[in-house]
Amino acid sequence: MAMDEQGVFAGKTAFVTGGASGIGRATALAFARAGASVVVADVSEQGAQETARLIEEIGGQALAVRCDVTRAEDVKAALDKTIETFGRLDAAFNNAGIEHRPMAAADISETDWDRITSVNLRGVFLCMKYEIPLMLKQGGGAIVNTSSGAGIKGFRGGAAYVASKHGVIGLTRSAALDYAAQNIRINAVCPGIIGTPMIERLIGSADAVREHLIAQEPVGRMGRPEEIANAVLWLCSDAASFVIGHAMVIDGGQTV
Ligand code: NAD
Ligand 1 — pocket residues by CB below 6 A? Predict the structure, then answer.
């Protein structure tokens, strides 16, 4: 089954954080192509509105919401708006995340540590904290959290990011067990090096960095955001009805 097949998510609502850019935008568009109404939540209001516009351009239904995932009141308000507008929440992709420039562990400032873990880990926790009660009320749902290859192995210079992404997998697995019997499936994706604005910021203008990154990918290229979106849609679909607490690696072989 092609996951962007029209109708797989017809009548359903998907909530996507970090939906203004990269993997989040591609996944929001994929949900819309598959028939879902999509809430695009992002700290960048303008970017979220642009994704919503792209969805409407292909005939989909979208709502853009400004939401900083580190703030409980923002997350709660965004989910309240989701229910107000579309009446339900079937799929949530908790994907907002930030990177940091390479730094040895002891050189990371406390401020940077708190900022990274706050968006990448606390943000996922807060989203689940307010999504799960809505899903329980309606009898079920599916959640996918964005981890990373950095969630399953260490990377030199990446201690804060790597710790936050390992944390996402622990959080996903434990929460998945908490709600497995209540028809809420919680899984994670671990993308490899995906060509998004985040990676472009890390590369900057250095061709050597680009080549170094591509050299880590046995397939000889970066992944495309749509290649992560396909996995997220599958994990949120009924085709994955027996998949619980899984951290799915989609990385062109990078961590094999
Ligand atoms: P991106 O920078 O293109 O997009 C991230 C989005 O998150 C942006 O729109 C940004 O505004 C939003 N965001 C940042 N902080 C936020 C906050 N506090 N609240 C709400 N939204 C916020 O990055 P991307 O590459 O699409 O990354 C998406 C996710 O995938 C991240 O969690 C990232 O860590 C993860 N990831 C990316 C790669 C990669 O190679 N690109 C690899 C592994 C994992």
Answer: 17-18, 20-24, 42-44, 47, 67-70, 95-98, 119, 123, 146, 148, 191, 193-194, 196-199
